[in-house]
Structure formats: structure tokens, C-alpha cells
Design goal:
- This protein is α/β, with parallel strands linked by helices and 331 residues long.
- 35% of the residues lie in helices and 12% in strands.
- The chain has ten helices and twelve strands.
- Helix 5 (136-152) links the parallel strand 6 (103-109) and strand 7 (161-166).
């Protein structure tokens, strides 16, 4: 999702950038700047020989590593394969970057923090705040960060590794509500068995406990582009230093709050929402992977590094784009 957004953005300036888009499962995507679908190169990051051969053939200046198992619940169900993708493949990519002298922008997560439950370090978190992931997904991303630092950033502030932590993401080109936890609640409004009858529905419990900061991948892509531009500048005065950066919208809400906002944008009344879903503020969901209550990120160091603040889209504006064409687009 984030990779597609960045690919789409960079293609708008294809005379300046030579972009190679990679994927594994979804290899076709539609970009507004192209009349036809854009095809991505298929690559399996767990096939190290294939990955090494491809990278050495193209010798990139910068690799933006977005691929991951990013769903905490799915991660717990397939631990070995998920750790291989999030940690082992990350270590291999970092090693290839070292050989090729390529910059590596590694996308990580706010779930490396625990919300203060054990660490007693509370949000908003700066890049140097103490980490303490409480689920396997967060642990894997932290281990990925460590691999990037150990291989590429052995000296503080120097190196080829740029770690970018992000929160809950959503995008404008999703074709399945399951592509983003910020959209999946809207499944309560999809017809069941092609019959939109309230009698056939069970009321869904939606998390109303954890505070999330849903962030548009289109916004994150714009910040990543600014980082890339700084990396490509040759002036030492404008050098963008290796390290850890945070990119997150300041607009927070629970998933249940978000469901009401999304429904309102689509003209679905609160009465209808409450017949289909109920907010659960009792604590973290007992049947899913553990999650912290709040991992808000402090982005001030990022804005200082790129030389300007960034204005994120409001949740209303972002969700209006993300849900355009609902429900037909997602059926």
C-alpha cells in the first residue's frame, strides 16, 4: 500500500527519477499519471539469490523497504514465516545495500513502543525514546531496525540506513477493506450474502479503547520523497543523516470513533451504525494479539531534518478519498 503510493508519486517525475517498483502478490496497479495499469517486477525477498541478482543487476542508489507482514493477528498465526520476512529478509537487504553502497529506507512501526505499560515511558515518542514492543509484530520490526543499524549505521549519524516509523496506515487505492485496519470496520456495512438485512447481522464489537493515529500513505509517500530528494542532493550542507525518523498524522481516534466518522461521510446514520456495531472500551481485545493503548509519535525531529513542517490531510478528507466508491468498489 505504501510502496504503491510512493511509486505513484515518483512516477509523476519520471524524467528525474529512474524508478523500479517491486511486488510479490499484487503486481498491477493503476496510477493516474498512466492510462494503462502499471506492472511491477515480481520478487520474493525470501529468495536471497534472486534478490541479490536483481539488485546487483540494477544497482539502485536508494532502496525503500516497505514489504512486511504488518497485521499483528496474522503474524501470531504464522510466526516463523512472518519473522523470516520481517527480520531475515530485512537483514539480507541491508547486507546487499552495504555491498552496493545503496541507501536503505526501512519502514518500521509505532508498535516498537508499549504505550508505557511496562516501560513507564509514555507518548508522544521521539526516535530515541525507549522501545519495548509487546507483540510479535512489534518485536520483529524492532529486530529489523536493529539489523539495519548493525549493518549500515555502525557510527551514530553516519551510514546508509534510514529507519522510518509509521502508525496505522490507510490508502486511496485499496480494493479490499482488509488491506488496512483503518478501513476494515466498514465491513459492517457490506451486504451479507448479498442481502443487506439487519436481521441477518450479528453486532460487531469494535475497539473503543486504543487511540490510533490513522495516516494516509499518500502523505507518508510525500515525506519519503522529501527524504529521498535530500539524500540525492550532493551538497554537504543539506546532507540528510542516517538515523531514525517518525512520520505520523497528529489526528487521533479509536477505531469505533473512526467507524462513526466514516459512516457519517457516507451518509450512514449513527442509528444504523449502532445496530451493526458496538464500541468496546473495556481494554485490549482478549482474542487478538496484544496491543498498546497509545503509541503516538513525535515527528519534530523529522521536520527539522527535512527543513520544514508537514501538513497532513484531515481524517475527514483522507477517509473520503479512501472510501470513494463504497460499497461497490470493495465487493
Amino acid at each position: 500500500m505504501l510502496g504503491r503510493a510512493l511509486h505513484r508519486l515518483l512516477l509523476l517525475e519520471s524524467n528525474y527519477y529512474n524508478i523500479i517498483g517491486l511486488g510479490f502478490s499484487r503486481l498491477e496497479t493503476k496510477h493516474d499519471c498512466h492510462k494503462s495499469k502499471v506492472c511491477l517486477h515480481r520478487i520474493n525477498l525470501l529468495d536471497y539469490d534472486e534478490t541479490s541478482s536483481f539488485l546487483r543487476q540494477h544497482n539502485p542508489d536508494i532502496i525503500v523497504h516497505c514489504a512486511a507482514e504488518r497485521y499483528p493477528d496474522a503474524f501470531e498465526k504464522n510466526l516463523d514465516a512472518s519473522f523470516q520476512l520481517n527480520v531475515d529478509a530485512t537483514r539480507n537487504l541491508a547486507s546487499e545495500c552495504l555491498r552496493l553502497a545503496s541507501e536503505n529506507s526501512y519502514i518500521s512501526t509505532s508498535y516498537v513502543f508499549d504505550g508505557g505499560v511496562s516501560s513507564h515511558v509514555y507518548p508522544p515518542y521521539k526516535p530515541g525514546s525507549k522501545t519495548n514492543p509487546i507483540n510479535s509484530y512489534g518485536k520483529s520490526k524492532w529486530e529489523g531496525e536493529c539489523a539495519v543499524r548493525d549493518i549500515l549505521n555502525k557510527v551514530e549519524g553516519l551510514g546508509q540506513g534510514f529507519i522510518v516509523r509509521v502508525p496505522l496506515l490507510y490508502g486511496a487505492d485499496c480494493v479490499d477493506l482488509n488491506e488496512s485496519p483503518a478501513l476494515e470496520m466498514m465491513k459492517v456495512h457490506l451486504p451479507q450474502n448479498q442481502c443487506d438485512s439487519n436481521e441477518t447481522r450479528t453486532i460487531k464489537k469494535i475497539d473503543d479503547w486504543a487511540l490510533r493515529f490513522p495516516t494516509s500513505v499518500e502523505d507518508v509517500a510525500k515525506v519519503l520523497k522529501q527524504m529521498i530528494d535530500r539524500l540525492l542532493e550532493e551538497s554537504d550542507d543539506n546532507a540528510f543523516r542516517a538515523g531514525t525518523y517518525h512520520v505520523a498524522s497528529p489526528h487521533g481516534c479509536t477505531k469505533y470513533n473512526l467507524l462513526h466518522l466514516q459512516s457519517n461521510l457516507l451518509g450512514i446514520s449513527s442509528d444504523v451504525v449502532e445496530k451493526r456495531a458496538v464500541g468496546d472500551s473495556s481494554g485490549p481485545p482478549a482474542t487478538s494479539a496484544p496491543r498498546p493503548q497509545c503509541t503516538q509519535l513525535d515527528c519534530s525531529d523529522t521536520w527539522r531534518a527535512i527543513g520544514q513542517d508537514f501538513k497532513f490531510v484531515t481524517l475527514e478528507e483522507g477517509m473520503e478519498k479512501a472510501l470513494c466508491g463504497f460499497p461497490e468498489r470493495f465487493m
